[in-house]
Amino acid sequence: MKKMKSIPILATVILMLAMTQFLAAEEKAFVGIYPGDIRNYEDAGVEYGIQVSGVVDDSPAQEAGMQKNDIILEFDGTKLFNNDQFTKMLKMYKPGQKIKLKIYRDGDEKTLKLTLANKEDFGPKPEYKAYIGVFLTDLSEKDYEKKGLNTNYGVLISDVIDDGPSAEAGIKWGDVMLDLEGQHVYTSDQISKMLGGMEPDQSVTIDVFRSGEYKTFTVVLGKKEIAKSYLNKAGWFEMPSNVYVWNYKDKNGKWLGLQVEELDDKDGLLIKKIYDGSPAEGSLLQVDDIIIEINGIEIDEIKDISLILDKEEVDNEVVVDVLRDGQVITVMAKVGEKSDIADQLQISIDNGLMKMYIDGEEKKIIDFEKMLENINKQLPKVQSGYHKLDSLQDKLKDLKVDVLRIEDSGAI
User: What is the phi-psi region of residue 410: left when phi exceeds 0, alpha when psi lies from -120 to 50, beta otherwise?
Assistant: First the structure.
């Protein structure tokens, strides 16, 4: 399996979100705000209070005139200093009770009166989308050849959900899906988008290739609940819908000029490409060589090469042992500056799906829709706990900037 290095900021954000647990399901009183702590009172122009990051539509707070970025100074005459205090005070109230909130907005103070609602009345109504109940893996030209296919399309069904639509129709793990409703399929993302235009309970035909035979199945699409994201409403995160492409240039990096791939069944790294004009182009290294050692150090992962190159100076030579046609060959390779790789790596976001392109080859980094689904599964449908995410607001909004700092360009 090919391995990709993680993006530190993405990993940090997702981990923090996944670890955020809210145990406030028993709370009944509902104000309808997304509260957060104020990092710097002086900058905010107040001596105490909590920040309103967002207001829920049709909630008591909205009806009372609360607005995003208001600062709540007092709760029924008690000064507020952080959101934990606000949450604990709210637990003492019941739906239907009236409260007063003193707020600060644009240099003025005012008091808002509102009647607390029941949080259960603000739970999202479920919406559903069609699904086929399989896990998919994109295939390469070599994969097609290994499976005996004379095509350049089709995706591998890497797993089938028990009792799902595909399993019930007879589709199995290891099948290669060739067509969906008569349309050739090339990538798993294509199938996801095709399903977006279909409805649950709709019958579709799926053509597969299995052990040298072509088979056609009729699948009745199932339904999958669409997770609603409170993060969007709170203003913490807006799923990208446009397409952006950034080039990446590692100005201070060092490399040999190789595109390598980690192997599943053996040690070493397979050389997939030698970049034009790179140090490796002038060496005796060849595509399909398997790098097993550099300077006497065993190589199993891409990071192993990076660690070695970090200790070398530009123009130094390293000793590279490669496996070629069953024989170990020693080759000298020069360390160069990774300064001409700007066009080799691109980052793009298309309808919430972030991908990385290495020398034109597409690699999925993260699916924002699935990420938000997983996040929302961790969060109860109550707003009072969301203050713990306010510290992530800037990181999420600046996500595209941090992506540019990705260290693994896929080239060594």
Answer: left
**125 exposure class (CB count in 10 Å sphere: 0-12, 13-18, 19+):** exposed
Kindly tell me the burial class for residue 30, based on how many C-beta atoms sit within 10 Å of its own C-beta (0-12, 13-18, 19 or more).
Answer: buried
36/57 Cα distance (integer angstroms)? 18
Q: Locate tokens 């990208």: which residue?
A: 240
Q: State pLDDT tens for residues 76-127.
A: 999 999 988 998 999 899 999 999 999 999 999 999 999 999 887 876 667 7
Q: Which CATH architecture has domain 254-337?
A: Roll (2.30)
What DSSP string describes 80-96?
--SHHHHHHHHTT--TT
Report the distance separating Cα 152 and Cα 174, nearest Å: 17
In terms of residues, how long is the chain? 412
CATH number at 127-226: 2.30.42.10
Question: Quick one: angle between helices 8-19 and 368-378, nearest 10?
Answer: 30
CATH 2.30.42.10 in the chain: give the residue spans: 1-124+230-240+368-412, 127-226, 254-337
- Per-residue pLDDT tens digits for 293-321: 999 998 888 878 888 888 888 889 999 99
Helix (H) or strand (E) holding 188: helix 188-196
Give Cα separations from 12 to 179, 224, 303, 399 (angstroms).
38, 28, 19, 11
Superfamily of domain 1-124+230-240+368-412 in CATH is PDZ domain (2.30.42.10)
Phi, psi (5° rounding) for residue 121?
A: -75, -10
Most confident of 167-176, 234-243, 295-304, 349-358: 167-176
